[in-house]
Design a protein that fits this description.
- This protein has about 325 residues and is an alpha+beta fold.
- The chain folds into two domains: about 20-190, DNA mismatch repair MutH/Restriction endonuclease, type II (ECO RV Endonuclease, Chain A, 3-Layer(aba) Sandwich), CATH 3.40.600.10; about 195-295, Orthogonal Bundle (Arc Repressor Mutant, subunit A), CATH 1.10.10.
- It contains twelve helices and seven strands.
- It has helices at about 30-40, 45-60, 65, 80-95, 175-180, 200-205, 210-220, 230-235, 245-250, 250-255, 265-275, 290-295, and strands at about 105-110, 110-120, 135-140, 145-155, 180-190, 260-265, 285-290.
- The strands form two sheets. It has a five-stranded mixed beta sheet, with helices on both faces. Strands 6-7 form a two-stranded antiparallel sheet.
């Protein structure tokens, strides 16, 4: 698609229903509603909140606990499913930030209608009802494991002329470069530990003819010192009963292999993990190799029936690998 020659600032937008005063195309610095929204959402945690929302959206689409999928770029994931991450993200962002659904668009911020758009591609599909409104546009680059968001008034005059079958139009490249306001810089997304395995290792860990405990022993053996979130354990044991209990059951066998399993569900184990440089969330696990921990700390046995939560955090995180 060629670059659209944009109407200059100060001219009248071609949309008769344009929301700018006098339908005049304004720079972001002169757009009072845009500036009000920027002030309302300004927080150092904005990028982290979007990271959480994107991770939840990807987990939802992959449905690893049922499908054993862990890589959104895998051939096992249909392109339509991959594209649906953007639609799911709109709801996850509202949940994370407490933004309430409100007509005529997705949400109201500072009493201003705002639409939420996300893409795993290069552009966003702006529906007719959002033309000339404010939009928060998020781009997820799966191959680079990163994301970024902008706030932009999607003037009809700044959208490509062509549209898809439902009338949605993309934002002109020059309009985004000149008049979209970055909300935060490119921010990395967490890497799923399963993507750190070789193909042979991954096939072994996910082999359906192996029991859960055998799979989990292999997982921790292949990835010592890597924080393993609960969602990964559920993926490894996809479709099986009570995988968290199975993880607790392998502690003694892991110890015999020189690995001390720690789970963030219990405070004493979180403290032990922290002493070795790991920040475990409630549902996180890590296998400490003997060489990393010295003398064995006293760790109370897990009580039956307890399972971890969903948080994924760790101080030792992979710098390369596939997203989920």
């Amino acid at each position: 698609m060629g670059r659209l020659v944009l109407q200059p600032l100060g001219t009248v937008c071609e949309n008769p229903a344009c929301k700018s005063p006098g339908r005049i195309l304004q720079a972001p610095t002169d757009d009072e509603d845009l500036q009000g929204v920027l002030r309302a959402i300004a927080t150092p945690c904005l990028a982290d909140g979007f990271t959480e929302a994107i991770r939840s959206s990807v987990d939802y689409v992959l449905d690893g606990a049922r499908t054993s999928r862990f890589n959104l770029l895998s051939p096992k994931v249909h392109p339509g499913e991959r594209a649906s991450v953007g639609a799911k993200l709109e709801y996850e962002v509202q949940r994370v930030f407490g933004w309430k659904k409100a007509k005529p668009l997705d949400i109201l911020i500072n009493d201003t209608p705002v639409d939420l758009k996300a893409t795993v591609g290069d552009n966003w599909a702006i529906p007719a009802e959002a033309h000339c409104h404010l939009c928060i546009c998020t781009q997820i680059q799966l191959k680079k494991n990163r994301h970024r968001s902008w706030l932009v008034r999607t003037h009809t005059s700044w959208l490509y002329r062509g549209s898809n079958n439902d009338g949605k139009r993309g934002i002109a490249a020059d309009a985004r470069e000149q008049w979209a306001v970055p909300l935060y810089e490119w921010t990395p997304l967490p890497v799923n530990p399963l993507s750190l395995l070789t193909e042979e290792q991954a096939n072994a860990v996910l082999a359906e003819d192996r029991g859960q405990e055998a799979r989990l022993l292999m997982l921790f053996g292949y990835l010592p010192g890597i924080v393993i979130p609960r969602s990964v354990i559920l993926t490894v044991c996809a479709g099986r009963q009570d995988p968290i209990r199975r993880a607790r059951a392998i502690r003694e066998r892991a110890e015999a292999q020189g690995l001390l399993l720690l789970c963030g569900k219990w405070q004493d184990q979180r403290v032990t993990a922290a002493a070795h440089g790991y920040d475990l969330g409630p549902g996180d696990w890590v296998a400490l190799p003997a060489a990393d921990r010295g003398a064995r700390p006293a760790i109370p046995e897990a009580r039956p029936g307890q399972a971890g939560g969903e948080q994924w955090s760790g101080t030792r995180e992979a710098s390369d690998g596939a997203l989920f």
